[in-house]
Write a sequence for this structure.
């Protein structure tokens, strides 16, 4: 197979679903507004600067759903999808996905954002294979903890290499689309790295390496 791999936030979406989920929880009064917004914004700044403590962030992001059953959170997530994610959908991103689908490529999303937030987004895009940071579930309830290797920076490479081994596949002919310098470890692994509306550090790296730079905005 030829893999077409996509980052999600600020690549296929015009915005960051992880940060938006925090804003959504504030707006729906699920969390203390001032404290949660301040911490959410600070973690996002750390991410943009390349210094995010992913374990600390996952504890923060998953804390509000701790103790809740998977199914009881579905209406909340449906609200989030309709009012926060739908406006972030990009027609050009949909066209890019369809281009790779028409070529017979295998589509994959790989994202640092946790699976609770992102799996319904991937499903809405028609992409069945996703690697994400994992939210622990015990006896049908979210614990507020993460499990497995966070799907962030070099962790994306580790998780993808494991998936390749488990499925008997390789990165021959592969594509990876991303906006973020945090994804340089994986961009350097694929045959066709593509910078999408890149941040400044990724733009510089792409220019040095001669990688294509495109916009889906």
């Amino acid at each position: 197979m030829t893999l077409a791999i996509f980052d999600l936030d600020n690549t296929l979406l015009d915005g960051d679903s992880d940060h938006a989920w925090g804003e959504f929880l504030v707006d729906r009064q699920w969390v203390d507004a001032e404290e949660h917004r301040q911490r959410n914004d600070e973690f996002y700044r750390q991410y943009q600067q390349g210094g995010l403590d992913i374990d600390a962030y996952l504890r923060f992001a998953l804390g509000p759903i701790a103790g809740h059953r998977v199914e009881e959170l579905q209406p909340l997530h449906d609200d989030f999808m309709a009012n926060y994610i739908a406006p972030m959908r990009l027609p050009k991103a949909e066209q890019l996905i369809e281009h790779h689908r028409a070529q017979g490529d295998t589509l994959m999303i790989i994202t640092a954002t946790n699976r609770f937030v992102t799996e319904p987004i991937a499903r809405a895009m028609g992409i069945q294979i996703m690697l994400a940071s994992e939210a622990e579930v015990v006896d049908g309830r979210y614990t507020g903890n993460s499990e497995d290797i966070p799907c962030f920076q070099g962790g994306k490479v580790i998780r993808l290499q494991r998936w390749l081994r488990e499925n008997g596949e390789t990165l021959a002919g592969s594509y990876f689309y991303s906006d973020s310098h945090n994804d340089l470890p994986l961009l350097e692994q694929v045959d066709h790295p593509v910078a999408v509306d890149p941040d400044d550090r990724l733009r510089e790296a792409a220019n040095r390496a001669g990688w294509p730079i495109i916009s889906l905005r």
